[in-house]
Amino acid sequence: MRRPSLLALAGLAAALCACGSTNDAALRSSLAALRTPPVAPSSSAAPGPTCAHPTWSLHPAGPGPSVRAIRRRGRLRAGVDQNTLLLGYANPLHGQRIEGFEIDLLHELSRALFGRPDRIDFRALTTAERISAVRDGMVDIVADAVTITCDRARQVNFSTVYLSAGQRVLVPSDSPARSLKDLRGKRVCATQSSTSISALGKYPGVIPHPVPLRTDCLVALQRGEVDAITSDDAILLGFHAQDPYTKVIGPAIEREPYGMAISKSHPDLVRFVNRELARMRADGTWRRLYRKWLPGTPRQPTVHYRD
Amino acid sequence: MAVTASASVNPFGVKVARARLHRTPVRLRLTAAVLAIASIALGLIAATAATSRRDAAHSVSASSEPQLMRAESVYASLSDADATAATTFLTGGIEPPARRSQYLRDLDAASAQLAALTHHAGDSPATRTAAATLTNQLPVYTGLVEAARANNRQGFPVGAAYLRRASALMRTRLLPAAERLYGIEGQRMNGDYRDGTRNAGLTAALVAAAVLFVLLVLTQIGLARFSNRILNIPLVIATVLVAVLGMWIGLGLSGEQNALAAAQRKGSDSVQLLSASRVLALRAQRDDSLALIGRGSDTTSLEDFDRAMIALRGKRAGGGLLGEAQRVAERSGTAGSLAAVRVSLARFERAHARVAAREGIGDYTGAVRSYIRGELRVARSLDAALESETRAAQQRFATNADSASSSVRGLRFGIPLLALAVAALAVLGLSHRVREYR
After folding, report:
1. CB-based burial of residue A212 (10 Å sphere; 0-12 exposed, 13-18 middle, 19+ buried)?
2. Does the complex come out with an ipTM higher than 0.90?
3. How far is B19 from chain A (nearest CA, A)?
4. Closest C-alpha among B79, B78, B3 to residue B287
5. Using CB atoms and an 8 Å cut-off, which of residues 170-189 of chain B contact chain A?
6. Which distant-in-sequence residues (6+ apart) come within 8 Å of B156 by Cβ?
7. Segment B254-286, tens digit of pLDDT
8. How many C-beta atoms lie closer than 10 Å to residue B358's C-beta?
């Protein structure tokens, strides 16, 4: 009686030894793999040093060694923005081709370099990347609403001014504000590392709302997250074209002369570009392109040379 | 336990007046009571163990596994919707109807599964918070995507900004909430696994059976000594029943335990690893779309692409989630089925490299074309391969979990019946002896 039962119990114990156990290894590694690291916040630039004539550029001249190198390569590498209607933007209606006033100026340069307007590799840049992209040789030239400032002029060379913009303010069309002074205690959107956001520092009480790309400001305004946008008038006009329920208010807060940024080590490219810009001003190309893209009367910027 | 025939203390140590103890009928009645109580105690202990095992096994297959699959489906649908929206935008112009309907299907699936998940979630505050985030933010997300479409259709570049915003919302709010849900349900399921394989109940039931068995044997030895009768038929039957019951408990519960462990090892471990892999593959695809939309201005997406790929396949061969899934598959004898996934992944990486090469020489149009005609198709087949592997693992899970439940099904009712029978037989067997004194 007892012996067989004990044997059965021993058998049972043997069966239990084979008992499986469970663990969390699979779930732990799945969850660890899915975890996304947080996005690091970026900071805005502080106002830079001052200097006498940052917009004075180099005298026009023919091609030198770096122009010849670009010609040998066969393509011009240009840093642009693809979100700024009127100046430079990827047009969804044309298969996301980049178009705009600045883009057409670059096509003119391509024509002068290669005899064809389309030998350009466009690289989209964030506002914060514009200077470093030229300085580090990622692109040959940047035409992306770069305001010439003393700080930037110490890092890169600038062509002569190709557009005189001014910093202004865009508000919803029902806003009672008439200038930036009326926006005390309000949130005002501006692009990170832009001259516009530095200028906001002069208006205490205005709450800056920095974003990485220009059009992010229009999204913020349309969603009611900010009360106004400050940027250059050329950019704001592009916003207004995308949202007619907005208006540009007030006088220009700052003068914003745009120049094409080129590496300090390629002065001959600066001279070559200046020669082309002078040609465009003289033969009416500049005026034609201005009329093609921008509203208002074309007023050619005054040009100074430092040598 | 040293109990002799002339025991002055009963096995449970209940002290009784010495004089009464020496009167045989009282001793017999006491022994009968002790045996009856021990049988009923065995019945209770074993039934509790079987019920809690059965509940855990049932909960794994009927509740926590379906919930985990719902959470996985929410997560994967949202990831796919995000990848599809980004890709659709990239193609520009008039979107292909198939891609639009896929986006809408994803959203439908995500909200339907989310509703089912919250319906079955009970009142876990963590689940509710995560589900509320999804319920509140999903309309915001779709609103942003529609704003992107509307602006895109008018040729306005602000459309791209809306899409970036939508994708950022997906990355920072929706997907983390889906991930939390997935984590909560995964933990719940593993908790059920632990309950279903816990040894304490089984050990207690077996010890109780052994104690009762020994008591019955000792009683029979004692009876044989002072009554000169070798066999007491009811007590012999009771002893056999206890032995059978003990074996049944042991085999049933360990069978359940083995089946449940197999369900995890062969099924849900693979399900978890493969569904996480699927989400990572979709994330990589979305990253590539966003990087192309950014046309060089979006380096974070490419960094995230690399991170997703490393998490997916590791830095060295056999690493990452897929390496782990492979090892799990080998352990459970289902290896080889992952070959299709690995082939698709290798093709996906080659396609990605071709797109990157086009971008590297500044040929944006060519890069987009190569992405849409090459990488995107490969990404779809990778997703399909991962999905079908996940479903196969789910099937393996279901088979094993069913057998776990069925191992203990009879026990829940069998144990109390058998225990009552043992108690009755013990009382019957001893009452025969008591009657001899009248």
Report:
1. middle
2. no
3. 33
4. B79
5. 171-172, 175-176, 179, 182-183, 186-187, 189
6. A85, A92, A242
7. 888 888 888 888 888 888 899 899 989 999 998
8. 20
Residue B310 covered by a domain: yes
Residue among B235, B249, B219, B240 nearest B44 (CA):
B249
In a domain, B28, yes or no: no
| DSSP three-state, residue A77 | strand
| Averaged pLDDT, B104-110 | 95
Beta strands in A115-198 (DSSP E): 120-124, 141-142, 157-158, 163-172, 187-191
The two tokens of residue B272 are 């978890």
The pLDDT of A32-38, averaged and rounded, is 70
Question: Would you say A293 and A89 are in contact if contact means Cβ atoms under 8 Å apart?
Answer: no
Q: What phi and psi, each to the nearest 5 degrees, are found at residue B171?
A: -70, -40
* Residue B122 belongs to domain spanning: 33-435
A85-123 pLDDT per residue, tens:
999 998 878 877 899 999 999 999 999 999 999 999 998
CA B417 to chain centre: 32
Q: Is B270 on the interface with A (CB under 8 A)?
A: yes
A65-162+259-293 is classed CATH 3.40.190.10: yes
Sign of CA dihedral B176, B179, B185, B189: negative
Q: Residue B67 contacts by C-beta under 8 Å, 6 or more apart in sequence?
A: B117, B120, B121, B185, B188, B189
Which range is least confidently modeled, A157-166, B19-28, B186-195? B19-28
Judged by a CB distance cut-off of 8 A, whether residue A14 touches chain B is no
Is 3.40.190.10 the CATH classification of the domain at A166-255? yes
Number of folded domains that form chain B: 1
Determine, for residues B261 and A5 on separate chains, whether the beta-carbon distance falls below 8 Å: no
Residues of chain A within CATH 3.40.190.10 domain(s) are 65-162+259-293, 166-255
Facing residues of A191 across strands? A211
